[in-house]
Amino acid sequence: MNAVSAKWVAVVLGTMLLVGAAGCGTEDDGAATVQIKNDFNNPEMDFQPPWTICESSYLDVEFGKVAIGETSAEQEVIPGLDNVLMVAAWDDPTCAPENCLPLASRNEEEVVDGQTRTIALNLPNHQGPCPPEGVQPIPEELYDRILALWPEYNFLPYDQRTENTQCLD
Q: 122-155: string of b/e by CB count within 10 Å (b at 16+)?
């Protein structure tokens, strides 16, 4: 192979690599179907906290308000692993901001391509900013994501989280 041929082979191979790299990540990532269930009234639990889910999001898809005992509409999400992020109101189905707190699922929840799943949120599967003594509070990263999603609730910064109005009741 002479120098000109070798140069053309290198150009063609380089072009193929660039075209191939440009196509990465553009394939369909798949889809899963998810619903959020407000299971805080689950009779199998020792205590049924009266949380109305006022706002909810999972894998960057908003699911909206979910009343106690209800299930959200189905939403399509890109499969992955994430916590359910929420704003919830204690004993207030109207979701008045002064009764709301940022909550998240205690566990990261996973869905895979083609899966249909209902994620139930209840007493043992949630975390918040001002839990009872001895219970770990919501991690700062999740708290900050909730503040960014729903700034209209005017929650205090993480280092002041226990001073949110609902924590003081």
A: bbebbbbbbeeeeeeebeeebbebbbebbeebeb
